[in-house]
Amino acid sequence: MKIKKAIVAVAGSGTRLLPATKSMPKEMLPIIDKPIIQLVVEELVEAGIEDIILVTKWDKKPLEDHFDHSWALEHDLKQSGKNDALKEIKRIAEMANFIYVRQGPRYGNGVPVLSAKSLVRNEPFVFVWGDDLVKSKVSFTKQMVEDYEKTGHLMIGVQEVPKEQVVRYGIVKLKQGTMQIEGIVEKPSVEETPSRYADFGRMILNQDIISVLENTPLGKGKELWITDAIQKYVEQGGEFYAKKVEDGEWLTTGDPLNYLKATMKYAIEREDIGEELRKFFQNQFC
Fold first, then answer.
1. φ/ψ of residue 207, rounded to 5
2. Record: fold of 5-268
3. Tens digit of each residue's pLDDT (9 = 90 or more) over 217-257
4. d(CA 219, CA 224)
């Protein structure tokens, strides 16, 4: 079955980026001149996703407005003859079918899936965290979808991290010589880590995972964790795989330092500003 739908978790509060996120969703913070969430959506659209289900909460109205037509702005751009800008603004609203669902009352990164489960019944779908970017030559979601169409494997994105950093992430334990997941260990010690592959917010799931998730108890912090459901699914005999990024890297934006790093990596490679930015850094810090 072709994957045509994605659930995007965007109900977080972005407390690590306060006060910038006091009145602006963290997913709307700019990577140069595009909001984080637009880069995520463009990745999905490149993979052939048509229906994008954004699981939100009460203060995400700016995000919803971003993917809608702005008739006044479009009129002003047309009157001013700014046709390139007009074309881009229209494109944003027409990239996909945008569906908005309010997140349920529980906490945890598994809750968005249950909040939108009626919209993906009996079909595979992509599950994405709205503040995780994957900068790659070919959309990472496209890489995953093409892999799924060949193998039928459910999967989660992973990236190797320095060994001293495994204590920050969920780390996958792999079946020897394969990318099949045997388990996921949350924030293991450096001495006991089963690998250096950290999982992140790109997954292909289906109804089987939803069924397991519905019966998964609350975990750490009394929250519902998607990785707990994946672990349970594997323990019950299900097959689940890790998928590495090809020709690219995962960039998290959830804290000030990593947000700035992500912005700089995108900026340095921009044709219009990259060269001048490199010169600036060389003059200032070399």
1. -60, -30
2. Spore Coat Polysaccharide Biosynthesis Protein SpsA; Chain A (3.90.550)
3. 988 888 899 999 999 999 999 999 999 998 999 999 989 99
4. 6
196: exposed, middle or buried (C-beta count within 10 Å: 0-12, 13-18, 19+)? middle
Q: Would you list the domain boundaries of the chain?
A: 5-268
CA triplet 79, 84, 90: central angle to 5 degrees?
A: 80
Q: How many helices (H) and strands (E) does the chain have?
A: 10, 13
Q: What is the pLDDT of residue 186?
A: 83
- In terms of phi and psi (left: phi > 0; alpha: psi -120 to 50; beta: otherwise), the region of 185 is beta
Long-range contacts of 278-284 (CB under 8 A, 24+ apart): none
Residues 6+ apart with CB under 8 A from 76: none
Q: Which residues contact 108 (CB under 8 A, 6 or more apart)?
A: 218, 219, 221, 223, 224, 225, 226
Cβ atoms of 101 and 111 within 8 Å: the answer is no
Quick one: pLDDT at residue 13?
87
CA distance 123 to 263: 35
The token pair at 52 is 């994008």
Number of residues that make up the chain: 286
User: Token pair 């250096």 is at which residue?
Assistant: 196
The CA radius of gyration of the chain, in Å to the nearest whole number, is 20
How many whole angstroms separate alpha carbon 43 and alpha carbon 138? 9
Residue 98 Cα to chain centre, angstroms:
16
Contact 226, 203 (CB under 8 A): yes
Q: Which residue(s) pair with 203 in the sheet?
A: 127, 156
Report the C-alpha gap between 238 and 206 in whole angstroms. Answer: 12
